[in-house]
Amino acid sequence: MRKSINLLRELLGSNDGASALEFALLAPVMLMVMVGIVDIGSVIRDKVELNNAAATAARYVLHEEYSENNLVGVATGGSALDADDVTAAVETVCGCAGGVVAVCGDDCADGEPSGRYMLVSLTKTNEMIIPYPGFSDMDITGQSRMRLD
């Protein structure tokens, strides 16, 4: 009986394997944090790429005939985006300076008539490395707005 009590005291007082246990408990958490940082970084990178590609596409639309497929090719041609993953939409909207939406023909708050703008929107679905609850896949949109008149 005495041997058992001494062995139990010796085991409870030992620090052998403590660092391995701490690593085993913390490694999955740290791995999830690192993967999350990579996922957020890819979303931010794609957002910047889409905004730049939308600006390129808007300049192209002003000067050339276009189709949606051609527009996506032009927009993604100089970027790291894959043209198969991107969809494009072009619409004409009316508005005032600063991006305020207005009815065509109405005057803005500063007394100037509202202008016609072309809005180019590019959308891409970003797939997460690990599907997080509530954040499985995200649609990222980049837009560019240019005044037509």
Question: What is the general shape?
Answer: elongated
Q: What is the ordering of alpha helices and beta strands?
A: HHHEEE
Strand order of the largest sheet: 1-2-3
Binned, the helix content reads 40-55%
Question: How many domain modules?
Answer: 1
**Overall mean pLDDT score?**
82
Tell me about the largest β-sheet: 3 strands, antiparallel
Structural class: alpha+beta
Give the low-confidence spans.
Answer: none
**Count of DSSP helices?**
3
Question: What would your notes on this structure say?
Answer:
There is one protein chain. The protein is α+β, with helices and mostly antiparallel strands and 149 residues long. The protein has one domain. The protein contains three helices and three strands. α2 (18-63) packs across α3. The longest helix has 46 residues, at 18-63. The chain is elongated and about 95 Å long.
Question: What descriptive keywords fit this protein?
Answer:
3-stranded antiparallel beta sheet, 28% strand, 149 residues, alpha+beta
Structure, briefly:
44% of the residues lie in helices and 28% in strands.
